[in-house]
Design a protein that fits this description.
The chain has 501 residues and is of the alpha+beta class. The chain has two domains: 4-242, Nucleotidyltransferase, domain 5 (2-Layer Sandwich), CATH 3.30.420.40; 243-303 and 333-496, 2-Layer Sandwich (Nucleotidyltransferase, domain 5), CATH 3.30.420.40. 39% of the residues lie in helices and 18% in strands. It contains 18 helices and 22 strands. It has a seven-stranded mixed beta sheet with strand order 16-17-15-14-20-21-22, sandwiched between helices. A hairpin with a 5-residue loop joins strand 16 (282-285) and strand 17 (291-297). Helix 11 (301-315) packs antiparallel against helix 13, helix 12 (321-329) packs across helix 13 and helix 13 (368-392) packs across helix 17. The longest helix has 25 residues, at 368-392. 53% of the residues are buried.
Amino acid sequence: MPKHILALDIGTQSARAALVAAGGDILRIEQVPHEVQSPHPGWAQQQPDAWWSETCQAVHNVLQSTGADPASIAAVSACGQMHGPVGVDEQGETTPPWVQLWCDKRCEDQCAAVRRAHDERQLSARAANPVNPAWVGLKVRWYKEHEPEVYKRARWFLVPKDFINFRLTGVAATDPSEASGSFLWDHQRGAYSDELAAAVGVDAGRFAPAPPSHAVIGQVTGEAARATGLAPGTPVVAGGGDFPVSLLGFGVVGRRIAADVTGSSSLFATHAEQPLIHPAVQNLRHVVDGWIPFTILDCGGLSMKWCQDWLASARGEDVPFEKLIAMAAEVPPGSDGLVFYPYMLGERRRENTAARGGFFGLTLNHRAGHFVRAAMEGVALAMARDAALFQSLGVEVDRLLCVGGGARNALWNQIKADAAQRPLTLADEPEAGLKGAALLGEAGAGLVSNPAEEAVARRTAGTVVAPTPDSAAWSRQALAKFSRIYNHMLGFWQEDAVLEA
């Protein structure tokens, strides 16, 4: 019987299921959308029980639409939005009903308390990361201090894909890509650290074991089989965070390769043998050997979504993305002096976690198209700053891939190439997360022996976007202006955050 992999993606905007043939061809994708709730500035939350019901629906739909025999599925492999701690009690029930997402900044007070009580440089040297609100351990401390019953009830704190795996198997497990994003993981020992847990103020025993990302952690239970339509006993692998799994799917494996990844967020990342310890750089374990040093803009693709929603609210009707892009294309480079500061969900840099977005240089001549193009340019200039930082730290890059949903925007690709003043190779793989997850599933099922080598073998050549010949002067001037605004606004909102608290 042909072997398939069921790949799951528990994303920020939808839960998806894909039936993938051995070898990596996606046969069918089904998705169920969901929304992010933001009841307060800097908050972003969703309901994990909804993720499970949506996943069950997506799996049912993909099995029904393909007519696939559930017995043909060799393994289930999930990726998902990272860093959102789902509390699960001894009975397997969620606590609380709402979960802080990766971009939620509510635990900044807890981060500040850790910095006051400890030498952040020493902690960061062990955790391979600066203290910031993204990390699961800090989010869990927020629950401990603000909702202590949630903390007391929780036997485990599981991130989104691990929660889905728990619902499928009854087994609590994570993987190194997610464990390294807890601020509880000692990068030298490759294990949770009691010292880091004590510094953060949480119990390391509430965080699940972290086998390799391709390891089988359990099998689909009878209850989960009835809910999903899967066959009981189907192996489930640990999987990984959507970001590292997508990099695997894109073939971002090996030295001297980097990626600009624009989805809801926007990241600049590379693959290295060891983490890159620097206050402005974060590090996660790859889902294969090695580490991923990266920077992140939480409002990358979400900046364009904001433009779409804003124009729709003004017009009283939906505005297709194609219309947005056409409006921006009519505006000259530099947006006639309008500059977008793209930190609408704050920033992970400790001095700027409470940041808000903004437009600078407004005149009476600016129209809607200027705002859209300025949003694209602001995200591109933030990426160009990060690329320059990596270069200053000695990271040599021969190939820069432009990946994620944002790579389908030709105008944005050109703006990025112009801003960075280097060619971009467009990865022509629209579903790298699902393909990366499927590759881990193949490895777990014994269909692939080395997922890293296989990822490189499956990497495809993409279109190269070179900087336009006359863009160098614009890039130099725009980067200087953007950096001037950035440096001036750095920390501007932090005092407000303290007063509001």
